[in-house]
Amino acid sequence: TEPSKKQLPRTEQRVKETLRWLAEDRFSQLRAFTLNHWKKNVDYAVEVVSQSCPQLSSLTLSYCTGITEKAFQSLAAHSTSLESINVQYSDYQVEGLAHLLETNGGTMRQILFTHGSRSERLLAALSTFRMLNVTPVPKAARKGPGADAAQGFPLLEELCMATAASFMSNRDLWDLLFGSPQLRVLDLRGCSNVTPQLLEGLPCAELECLFWSHYSGNVQVRLSSTRRDLLKLTEKWSGSLRELDIANQQFTEEDLEEAMGHLAGAPGAEGLRSLNLVGTRITPAALRLIIGQSTTLRYLNLSSCRNLPRGLKRAYRGQVDIRQLLDALQ
């Protein structure tokens, strides 16, 4: 039977009986459970699984509808080992999920949900989390909650907002990070509307990983004008950065050279381990600066870099490979 279609009462009862039999007789060691595109009986499925599967640690409800507070209450009462829940693109009762997070949030390692206009209660419940993975949608990007609608995330250490679209704006990002001084990892891949000026103003002073690449197929990125002010970011985080990904960012040659020069000469810059410069305007002079000083660099990607000689536009792995590149640039 197709769970997304209407079911006769007899068929629906058989579905419920099968679910209960599986949960009670076959799923005693179940750790991960997924439902996709279910329109009915989602509450029932979650209830019987949570009651019969004490080792459940991961739950995915994708493109499902009709998820009420009953399902989340059952999870809170029975699934004490639950570490990950994914309700992206599903229709669920926000208050129910917020209650689950407030009750069992201490054991949660990952929650995936689609950020929308009804997310304020969730954001408040997530204020003590250390890692967030948020998928922006167009409506949310236009009408996201303001800074006064949430308590902020004072303990947040990792934020992933990677997207193939460019809905995320400066305002949306600030609304999430205005109170996150402990942030260590920031993944903004595909967020082409975010500017260096906004990133410079974030309260996190010890960022270790910045992933801010653009997708080469994004028309808006291809048509965008050149950027400046990468230097401001390397000045802010040169002592703490361990991984930097700015693939396909259109910073000018001068800005890249100044930024790499500062990154190479700043105290703590020897800790840089990974640098992705795919599709940028990096020059041989700028590369010599950063490679010559970064003795811990283990990964360097120079694919599609227009200003480099042929034969050098590739990914380099390990110090030996990178040192050979330095010799070739001399």
Give descriptors for this structure.
12 strands; twelve-stranded mixed sheet; alpha/beta; 330 residues
Q: Can you offer a commentary on this structure?
A:
With 330 residues, this protein is α/β, with parallel strands linked by helices. It contains 13 helices and 12 strands. The protein has helices at residues 9-25, 42-52, 69-78, 94-104, 120-125, 138-143, 170-177, 196-200, 219-223, 230-237, 253-265, 284-293, 319-329; strands at 32-36, 58-62, 84-86, 110-115, 131-136, 158-160, 185-187, 209-211, 243-245, 274-276, 299-301, 315-317. Strands 1-2-3-4-5-6-7-8-9-10-11-12 form a 12-stranded mixed beta sheet. It is elongated, with a radius of gyration of 24 Å. The chain starts with 8 loop residues before the first helix and ends with a helix. The relative contact order is 0.06. Mean pLDDT is 85; it is low at 139-150 and 219-224.
Q: In total, how many beta strands? A: 12
Mean pLDDT: 85
> What sort of overall outline do the alpha carbons produce when their principal axes are compared?
elongated
- Spans of at least 5 consecutive residues with low confidence: 139-150, 219-224
* Main beta sheet: 12 strands, mixed
Strand order of the largest sheet: 1-2-3-4-5-6-7-8-9-10-11-12
How large is the count of helical segments? Answer: 13
> What is the CA-CA span between the terminal residues?
67 Å
Percent strand equals: 5-15%
Helical fraction equals 25-40%
Q: Output the radius of gyration.
A: 24 Å
**What order do the SSEs take from the amino end to the carboxyl end, as H and E?**
HEHEHEHEHEHEHEHEHHEHEHEEH
Q: Could you say which structural class the secondary elements and strand pairing correspond to?
A: alpha/beta
